[in-house]
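If you are new to this repository, start here. Below is one unmodified record pulled from the training split, so you can see the exact layout before writing a loader.
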Amino acid sequence: MTRLAGAALVLAVLATACGDSAGTSEADSLTPWPVTAFPALPEIMKDVPEARIELGHLLFFDPVLSVDRQTACVTCHSEIWGMGDGMARAIGHGAGLQAGPGRRGPNMLRRNAPHLYNLAFRATLLWDGDAQTLEEQALIPIFAEDEMDADPQTLVADLASIPEYATRFEDAFPEDPRVTLENLASALAAYQRRFLSNRSTYDAYVEGRPELMNDEEVKGMYRFAEMGCDGCHTPPLFESETFANRNVPEVEGIVDHGLEELTGREADRGKFRTMSLRNLMSTEPYFHNGSITSMSGAIRHELEQSGAPFTDDDVRLITLFINKTLRDETQEAIRPPTVPSGLPLPIDPPGSR
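And here is the target side for that same chain:
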């Protein structure tokens, strides 16, 4: 059977099962949903000097941003782990240079470190939507007591005292060449907006190359839609600006009420942001507290929450669709050999992935 024939077969089966509601236009499509264009880049990404992006790149990897001079942004958002850290919950300063699942330390956070792909398109950031811009978000972990715990004034003075950083801030911000927290946040945000996931197999498929998805992957896509997964994880980003309580298993000793902690509304208790399904293959464990260790386990949990009947094969096919066709590692971080502070970079041990 050809892949196109496989797609047609799935459409026929779904049409038989669901009656005439699909309609002719959907039956003629290669997807179970209307194909929409990938979002245009936001205005803030236009005409950004490359010097600003490169400054953000170096800052992202430099432990100079932390109180212990051993913890960097990349500690919790490593290219080795799909721009996450491979752990259930992130660990802040005080754990040395070790990154990845072997990291141990006194400052374990309540929440999982999500990947950084497609943050440029979000209206809210973090698990509880506590930040509205990447500039705002960039400073939160740097000054959080249990994350990097830097002192704002000390950090600005330290960066300004490093000749290469002083020069790079001048090049990145010619209109205001000072080392400031605002410019620091702007550089980190400019760099992180470059993490785009828009070249996956699925993207090529909907752009006119249906041969790139095999029969099983196409079936998984249709199962994904049939089970209602696309209601919250909406293509093409496979996420949404919604917050939901999905009854994720609690972790002993951790109290986390999610969105309620911001709004004060009891109705928001246990609600967390709907995260993207793109590039999930390297970021296990899953959910806000890392309580589910495998992708198939996370999918099974979500299907159980939906209340609709499902089979082990449904779990297998949906897992295959997400794992194989939403994978896009073309724009992951490139680790610099050195950083301007001269400090050693956090280490993901060889063979850790």
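Two things worth knowing about this chain: Strands lie at 243-244, 272-273. Residues 243 and 273 are 4 Å apart (CA to CA).
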